Amino acid sequence: MKAPAFSLKKALTLAAAEWLAFWSNPAGGLALLVFLVFSGILFYNAVAEFAATNLSVLAQGRILNADVVIFANGLTNLGLVVLLVSPLTTMRAMADYAHGGRLDRLLAWPLSPLEIVVGQHLAAVFAISLLTVLSLIPFGAIWLMGVGNLMSLLTAAIGLFLLILACAAIGLALASFNSTPLGAALTSLGVLGLLWALGWAAPYLPPQAAYLAQGLAVAPRLAHFVVGLIDLNDVVYFLVLTLVALAIGRPLGHQK
Amino acid sequence: MSRPNNGDAPLLVVKNLTRAFGSRLAIQEASFTLGVGERLALVGPNGAGKTTLLKLIAGVLAADYGTIAIDGLSPALARQTAGLVGWLPESAPLNPDLTVLEHLSLSADFLGLKSPSADQKIEELIGALNLKEKLPRLCGQLSLGSRRQVALALALMGPPKLLLLDEPTSSLDPLEVLRCREYLRTLPESTSIIISSHALDEAAKSTTLALFVAAGRISGPRPWPALGPDLEASYLRETRESPRL
Predict the structure, then answer these.
(1) CA gap B98, B84 in Å, rounded
(2) Which whole number is the average pLDDT over B1-25?
(3) DSSP state of B99
């Protein structure tokens, strides 16, 4: 009657339960609302900017590239929304369990720490992915209208999914060291925001620090995907971030 | 009166178990064994260390010193082994955003119970603990007593070889206490049970052995009859013997 080290079935069962609980809670609706409002505003801005700029460019006898202005900008902004909203989904994981005393319940089930971490990670990934897919619908719609490049849309979707994997794992890791959901959300927001801002800060840093900042920054990696490029280095970067964060995140972090 | 020895290896072996919170020793060098099918009550005042001892055995707290073996496994491994340990935590924590039925199904899934045996087990627990009307309700909307009933059902789902119950009847009304006690009696004789309780009478009715816990020190286990007819006097004697009280 020896327990297996890891059962994907158990992790998926936990993920399904977390998914149900997420949408039964007001936090799920709030995340959906915030995500759609932010991504909608940013999409509208990208289209409005394209329309306004295109008029002036047309007057000069040139045509603006919709791939760059709508797709690249809009999808990069969508990445920023993923990064900002993912703490709303992960803050309810470990920290909420420990805060509400429910970690005891979770630990009372025959689950290994790895199954708990993976189950909660998958639940967060599913939730953020659903929000992202809903936000990609307008991009798909304008592609159907003949604007933009399908390949860019597909590679951007892959890049966004890798970003979601990393954001969810980082959020969970930080939530496992916070005693309250709010603390978990704010810490995650700070760390993910820093990873994004490193790309902006790099040009103003000394050469070695700039090199490091560029290496760690999320935005330049995502920028490759949204213009249709899949670089193996970028894929490895996101996967390493995810695995390191999952290794750090542990349900027993709250064990006193 | 000594404990009967059926010749089997004990299900639970606790040796020199010590756990501190800061400078306070919650459990000090506790050693005892529990045989297959034995039913033990942890009795002692509030803050004596009963819950800490149960959490250590359940594998959700790590010991500072000493060892615990459940069926030869460490608590951490035993906890992950389906059908070995069932645990009812004191606060009966449940996910407020899941229904009672979802909790029961989830528990059956984690324990690897398959239909139709999973459905039968869930039906049995629903009937025994009177949960039918509560099935579609979110656990966050239940009273503390109802949450404890659900948590008890989850602990009993296995069914486990070793059942750890922290104040199982607190917050329950008298009828629910009777139901709970009756259901515990229907468990297989091979089920070992440890119940933490303040209520001496209740503990004596549900178990055969008493382990006194006072200021982190344990005394026992002893069969209840060996303590004499005056349980309160025995309780006071046992808990006052602790040098730290």
Answers:
(1) 25
(2) 78
(3) B
Instruction: Tell me, yes or no, if B106 comes closer than 8 A to chain A by beta carbon.
Output: yes
What is the rounded CA–CA span in Å between residue A203 and residue B159?
62
Residue B222 gets which letter from DSSP? Answer: E
Rounded to a whole number, what is the distance in angstroms from the first to the last CA of chain A?
A: 29
B245 to chain A, closest Cα gap in Å = 25
Residue B243, pLDDT score? 45
Instruction: Pick B102's closest partner by Cβ from A14, A17, A105.
Output: A17
ipTM of predicted complex = 0.72
How far is residue B196's CA from residue B167's CA, in Å, rounded to a whole number?
5
**Phi–psi pair at B88, nearest 5 degrees:** -105, 105
3-state SS, residue B187: coil
Q: Is any Cβ of chain A less than 8 angstroms from the Cβ of B98?
A: yes
Give residue B169's identity as a one-letter amino acid code. T
**Structure-token match 């087990």, residue found:** B121
User: Are the beta carbons of B151 and A105 separated by less than 8 Å?
Assistant: yes
Whether residue B89 and residue A17 make contact (CB cut-off 8 A), yes or no, is no
Could you give the angle at the alpha carbon of A53 between the alpha carbons of A52 and A55, nearest 5°?
70
B residues 125..154 contacting A (CB < 8 A): 138, 151, 154
Distances (CA, A) of A79 to A143, A164, A216: 19, 9, 16
- Whole-prediction pTM value? 0.80
Instruction: Identify the pLDDT of residue B26.
Output: 84
Residue B30, SS3 per DSSP: strand
pLDDT-derived band of residue A256, with 50, 70 and 90 as boundaries? Answer: very low
- Residue B58's pLDDT is what? 87
pLDDT per residue as tens digits for the range A166-188: 999 998 888 877 777 788 888 88
Question: Containing H/E element for A215?
Answer: helix A207-216
The backbone torsions φ and ψ at residue B94, rounded to the nearest 5 degrees and listed phi first, read -135, 160
pLDDT at position B182 is 78
- The phi and psi torsions of B102 (rounded to 5 degrees) equal -65, -40
Q: Which residues make Cβ contacts (< 8 Å) with residue B87, sequence separation at least 6?
A: A104, A108, B54, B58, B60, B79, B155, B163, B164, B166
Cα(A182)–Cα(A32) distance, integer angstroms: 18
Could you read off the pLDDT of B82-117 as tens digits, one per residue?
778 888 887 777 888 888 998 898 888 888 888 888
Paired strand residues for B222: B210
Could you tell me if residue B163 is left (phi over 0), alpha (psi between -120 and 50 degrees) or otherwise beta?
A: beta
d(CA B196, CA B211): 9
